[in-house]
Amino acid sequence: MADFDIELATARITEQAERAEADASARFARSGPVVGKAASPDGTIEVQVAPGGLLTGLTIHRSTLRHGSAVLADQILELAQRATRRAGDRMYHALAPVVDKAQLDVLGYEPIPDDDPDADTYTYGR
């Protein structure tokens, strides 16, 4: 049975993680924060989320308030879901060059196909 050098294996893993961190940090420094955005077709509601879906921005035009709270809540949730997918897509493309695809899948970051309605008109890190 071959000996396994745990210290050497640990050093290699640590080095790989540090390299991936440095590469990812450099990409984020060049691009700025990764967020997802979505707006209603008429532009009266806009949402912004961080990867994972944390709401970081919400703009509601005064005229939208006349539709009632239930309609407004449904619209905000729908837009937040769209923005969350976009943020995940942007994070995927930011990290794909430095993180294994299986790890991105575990984190829930996946690319959005170009023909998907949630695809942004601009790209991130591509």
Automatic annotation (TrEMBL):
<dbReference type="InterPro" id="IPR036894">
    <property type="entry name" value="YbaB-like_sf"/>
</dbReference>
<protein>
    <recommendedName>
        <fullName>YbaB/EbfC DNA-binding family protein</fullName>
    </recommendedName>
</protein>
